Amino acid sequence: MSHWSATVSEQLGVGIVGSGFIANFHVQSWLGVRHADITGIASPNRDSAEALADRARALGVGDPTTTDDVAALARDPRVDAIWITVPNHVRVEVVERICEEVASGRAQLRGIAIEKPLARTVAEAKRIVEAVEGAGLLGGYLENQVFAPALTRAQEIIWKRGAALAGNPYLARCAEEHSGPHRAWFWDGRRQGGGVLSDMMCHSVEAGRALLTPPGGDKSSWLTPLSVSATIAGLKWTRERYAAKLAETYPGEVDYRNHPAEDFARATITFRNGDGELVVAEGTTSWSFVGAGLRLTFELLGPEYSLQVNSLDTPAKIFLSRELRGEQGEDLVEKQNAEQGLMPLIEDEALTYGYTDENRHMVEAFRAGRQPRETLREGLAVTELLMAAYLSAEQGETVSLPTDLTDFVPQVAQGTWQQG
Ligand SMILES: NC(=O)c1ccc[n+]([C@@H]2O[C@H](COP(=O)([O-])OP(=O)(O)OC[C@H]3O[C@@H](n4cnc5c(N)ncnc54)[C@H](O)[C@@H]3O)[C@@H](O)[C@H]2O)c1
After folding, report:
1. Under DSSP, is residue 355 helix (H, G, I), strand (E, B) or coil?
2. Would you list the DSSP string of 70-106?
3. Domains along the chain?
């Protein structure tokens, strides 16, 4: 075998299922990923699949084939691993379909990587984990924020210079906030699995768990959850003016007058850490934040130190005067809310939000035949905490852990939640 073919055979061929918002972020991030190309895309939307394939070719990150059949994608010999970026309500069927192809021997894959949130309920998350493990595949949980370079670098330093001398950190505070999602299905509690708690608290919970764990450590063995207390509320989008706006934007699909979902959630989770100490993760998430755009904040507090990250504290800012009346866009920051005044500009969102490092890590783990740092079991652990948070919010009480939440379906996910 020539040196060239040996090098080529080491490349991982990656197929993507779904060709929407996050699939585009993954393709963009591939500029910073080595040893892998995007080789296939499966989506029922042929136009967006073709557009995504063109984008991959234009960026030089692969020459993907397109199909509307996920089984065909799994069987494609150029595809070694699959990234799942489909909406939450079709997640289980898509994963199970791919795993059937592998288990039956019709497809040969190394691994599967699945977008957050892993599932809408603990029961669904368990089905996904069982299907992937049953097919003998490696499994990655695509939780980008724990790969955000500002978080990982600050965490590394704070543990080395702070925790090593003064003791473990005791409080993590993480938040993700923006002005609301970009597609109808996110707003629909039944399809999405809830409101902002399901959609975004998964990030804040995992970022909090990561910060409280020594860098590179195993979160699930270091942190034993003890209790969850949470609140959910409809602060903005349940107001008549905004419910009417949703109905007008998504006619027949989103009805916040009769089937609202929460646009604010907060959760406080207590853990016992590996040294037997009590530590706390606080998460706050909202679809009712109107600022420049998406804002991620992370804080970690310990005995003699603290850490702070705010994704809108950007080194680059631009100013546009009141004389300018430009088109609306998202070219400065995700979920951008304005095109005037002093605005933060994120120079490389795929890097800042963690997608680049996340995908580089997943690719290297799959190539080496080992489980990545963020496994599907971490995704299951997060789902269990999110369900405990919904239960706590519904009951108005702190939920003690462990408790079996396999059969629990939040009221918001059933479409029956009404604000008290
Ligand atoms: N990590 C993050 O910060 C982040 C950000 C946005 C979205 N997400 C997650 O990614 C997933 C997708 O979100 P999105 O914003 O890209 O949604 P989207 O609606 O923009 O895109 C979904 C894509 O899946 C395709 N699709 C639908 N049903 C399918 C099926 N049965 N088989 C194959 N493809 C199918 C659609 O045609 C579309 O191309 C969600 O789970 C969401 O939570 C993660």
Report:
1. helix
2. HHHHHH-TT-SEEEE---GGGHHHHHHHHHHHHHTTS
3. 3-116 (3.40.50.720), 146-351+380-414 (3.30.360.10)
What's the CA gap between 347 and 114, in Å, rounded?
Answer: 26
12-47 pLDDT tens trace: 999 999 999 999 999 999 999 999 999 999 999 999
**CB of 84 closer than 6 A to ligand 1?**
no
Is there a contact between 148 and 346 (Cβ–Cβ < 8 Å)?
Answer: no
Q: How large is the angle between the packed helices 21-29 and 46-59, nearest 10 degrees? A: 10
Please, which residues bridge with residue 38 across strands?
A: 14
How many other CB atoms are there within 10 angstroms of residue 143's CB atom? 26
User: How far is the C-alpha of 193 from the C-alpha of 205, rounded, in Å?
Assistant: 17
pLDDT at residue 10, rounded to an integer: 80
Ligand 1 center to residue 402 CA distance, Å? 31
Residue owning the nearest CA to atom 37 of ligand 1: 45
- The three-class DSSP label of residue 404 is coil
Six token digits for residue 325:
């009346």
Q: How far apart are CA 412 and CA 271, in angstroms?
A: 26
For ligand 1, say whether the CB of 17 is within 6 Å of any of its atoms: yes
Task: Kindly state if the Cβ of 401 falls inside 6 Å of ligand 1.
Answer: no
Q: Over 50: is that where the pLDDT of 3 sits?
A: no
pLDDT at position 317 is 97
Quick check: 254 and 244 in contact, CB under 8 A? no
Kindly state if the Cβ of 170 falls inside 6 Å of ligand 1.
Answer: no
